[in-house]
Design brief:
The protein has 148 residues and is an all-alpha fold. The chain has one domain. 76% of the residues lie in helices and 0% in strands. Helix 1 runs antiparallel to helix 2 and helix 2 crosses helix 4. The radius of gyration is 21 Å and the shape is elongated.
Length: 148
């Protein structure tokens, strides 16, 4: 037997909802079991997309940084943007991807703060792209079924 992560979590959630929760006497215990089952379903969804979501977001942020680097007035920020734009995700373990994503998102905050001090069409365009990326990040993280 080869337990697949998402399928195992879904089976556990189904068992909690169909077999365990109905047999619990207390309403609170039934509802708590339902919440736990929902979290297992959400974890199954995230497990399945975890690496793909982070690789997609990291790639998108790096492309944004490459386009924004010439706009940076600070040589230090420009160098950080260029260096980040040249990075890649060689290590596809989720922990490594998440670490890279956190660093890229920190740089995005610095870029956004800088861009908002500039007065140019290019700065407005980059600001709009930053907001578009933030919205896309929220959509990437959305749980398909929530709430139960």
């Amino acid at each position: 037997m080869k337990p697949e992560g998402p399928r195992t979590l879904q089976l556990l959630a189904g068992h909690l909802l169909a077999e365990i929760a109905p047999r619990l006497a207390e309403d609170y215990a039934q509802k708590t079991t339902g919440v736990v089952a929902g979290l297992l379903i959400a974890a199954a969804e995230e497990w399945d997309r975890a690496a793909a979501r982070r690789v997609e977001e990291n790639r998108s942020l790096r492309m944004l940084f490459a386009d924004a680097a010439p706009l940076a007035r600070s040589a230090g920020l420009r160098a950080r943007l260029v260096a980040a734009s040249r990075g890649d995700d060689e290590d596809l373990r989720v922990a490594a991807l998440e670490k890279a994503n956190a660093a890229l998102r920190e740089l995005l905050i610095d870029l956004h703060a800088h861009v908002e001090t500039l007065q140019s069409e290019e700065a407005l365009r980059i600001d709009e792209r930053i907001w578009d990326e933030l919205h896309a990040g929220v959509a990437r993280r959305a749980i398909a079924f929530w709430p139960l």
